[in-house]
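Aim 2 progress update. The chain analyzed this quarter is reproduced below.
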Amino acid sequence: MRFALVSNVLPPDDNSHAAVIYRLLSDLDPRRYCLLSSGSGGRAGEPGRLPGTLHCLPPAPQLTRGYRMGLRWWRERVNLGVGAIARARTIAAILRSEGCDAVVVCTGGQEILDFPAAFLASRWTGARFYAYLLDQYGQMVAHVTGEHMFARLEPMVLKRATGVIAPNEFLRDELRRRHQVDAAVIHNPCDLERYRGPAAAEAADDAIARGGERRIVYTGAVGPLHYGAFRALLAAMAALDRPDLRLHVYTPQPPERLDREGIRGPVVLHPPQPLSAMAALQQQADVLFLPLALDSRDPDIVRTAAPGKLGEYLAAGRPILVHAPSDSFVASYFREHGCGVVVDRDDPAELAAALSSILGDAALRTRLRARGWARAQADFDVHRARRQFARVIGLAEPTTADL
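Predicted structure tokens:
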């Protein structure tokens, strides 16, 4: 079997979706798959690039006239329809030339053409169609462009897919409730071999404390789904009045944008780091911060979000401070398994108390460390995720461990 994977982001891009794709495919024979992307898949031989054949999808054709007399609404919808059909033809031609039996489309980011285009291409070529919902497509479309016909395509496409993959149980249940579609859950995987386990993390506690500065660390993108949670954390840090406390943020977002959103003060901004550096950075933290804004304009996206760093944080063996809505997957997961301290109200005083408790209670840190490592092994191990992915798309027979 040979399959095509369609995604607008691919390794070595520095984002969580690219990291998921890299971890799933990096150990797979490159003759079993090819990659299709309207973004960048890196240069041949570049570190972190997948070895499978890469096909760059051209930009979709666009009508550039039609702004007057209320025609813009129609023009944009014509552009979407024409663009999806043009891209579907390109994908179909690649599926035929590569001899692909299946196509897997990954949703996420700002790209909304790939999902319907890959489905059309699968229909034209007879290839099996799989939807890997790193983000829920309908919510993503509404967030990017507002409600329109593409959002309404989601249930029709998903019901006709050979298989659907969701990164967490909340999104799986949402798909079942809204569209009567059953999805397989594959948690965003983590390479646990890069982490040292709870014993090594416990031994590192004293060394971290002797450094003088107490580090709250966040790794990843910072956007509208996070701003409010960061502002609440900074208010909590101010309330504690601890000069030794610093927030270290490793992100691709420009400092000016974060400053405009009030993310300033005892904040040290770092450029994004490659996947290979994440384990060391996270294991040097006194506290790992996992935020989702409680005041977001997109509460449905927040509720079913599955941050790619979640497994990494659990494996790092550092205490995790979660600030997210009570009805979100993130808050529910950490509350259920007791593997982090959860603050699910917009209350800087409560955040300050949680942060103080983590920094001052060695027994709490030990308990969180052990439970976090256990959950990383149970839900986020990359080897298990690879077996699950292979089973869903028909690359391998299921085993007891995958069921």
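Confidence is low (pLDDT under 50) at residues 398-403. DSSP finds 16 helices and 13 strands in the chain. These observations will guide the mutagenesis experiments scheduled for the next reporting period.
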